[in-house]
Amino acid sequence: MLITNSDVSALQRNIDKVIAELEMWFNRNDLIIHVGKTGIMSFHDRQSKFLIKPQVSFNKLNPEYTAKTKFLGIHITETLKWYSNVQSLANKLSKVSFMIKSSKGILSPCTIQNIYFTKFQAFLQFGILFWEGTGSELSIRIFRIQKRVIRSMVVASSRTSCRQLFKELNILTLASLYIFEVTCFIRKYCQSLKQNSQVHQHNTRRKLDIHVKLQKTEIYKKIVLNTGTEAYNNLPKFLKEINDYKAFKKELKLFLLLQSFYSVGEFVSS
After folding, report:
1. What is the pLDDT of residues 252-265, one digit of tens each?
2. Could you state, in order of their start, the residue ranges of all structural domains in the chain?
3. What pTM did the predictor assign?
4. Which residues have C-beta within 8 Å of that of residue 132, sequence separation ≥ 6?
5. Most CB atoms closer than 10 Å: which of 50, 65, 118, 229?
């Protein structure tokens, strides 16, 4: 449940109203809110000097504010930094990496590849929209683990370049996987975003691009809508001209498999 308002007094009123409605619904359905397992988080950037923590009360009990929590498998902090989530992800990926390395002489290459997609890539893909676009140091750590797994799958030395191996195994790099997920998100769920052709009538080569709104702060520049818009705008023209969503996804994946981008920056500059 997310409640926002730029005015502190209005925010408190909104919270009181929502909590009252929740209590009524729970009581009507003979349910109880477990206050001990209920956390409250006040989101803010790291530069905030005055933290706003409105009063929240469930059935005359006050849940505690928390700096971090785990929600649906995603580690969230009050400053929206993703170090805890990436640390947890790195631990999971390292375990799968060891599993694949240990199974190399026992299982067939096809089975090893199935383990990669069902375990490693499943972990990698989950929540990637949130953390991959926020900082290169986080991406580098996870990408190193991915390259280590790729080398294990083909028994290559630690000095072997993985770019061609990704193509041979039909596996998306971390950056390519993020580009795939974020551009599909923009294409499928953000129909309200305007293209440049809807903002002005000039017949430019960027008329099919999504119109970019200027952002003043770094935290807003890194949200999914902005990073996704930047990635979508840098797609080749033939991809943006595909109207059918399923066809778009298929052609986009083929394009990314052929390129094997090592970073989002490499994709943008290409």
Report:
1. 999 999 999 998 88
2. 8-66, 89-126+136-168, 178-269
3. 0.82
4. 138, 139, 174, 175, 178, 264
5. 229
